[in-house]
Amino acid sequence: MTVSTASGSGTTSSPLSGDQGGAHFEAWSLLAAIAVETERVRFGTLVTSTVYRNPDLLADMARTVDHLSGGRLILGVGAGGHGERDYAEYGYEAGGGPERVRDFESALERVERRLPRLNPRPAGPLPLLIAGFGERVMLRLVAQHAQMWNVGGPPEVVAQKNAVLDRWCERIGRDPAEIERTVVLFPEMIDSWRDYVEAGMQHLILTVPAPFDLDPARRVLAEAGGER
Question: pTM, whole model, 2 decimals?
Answer without folding.
Answer: 0.93
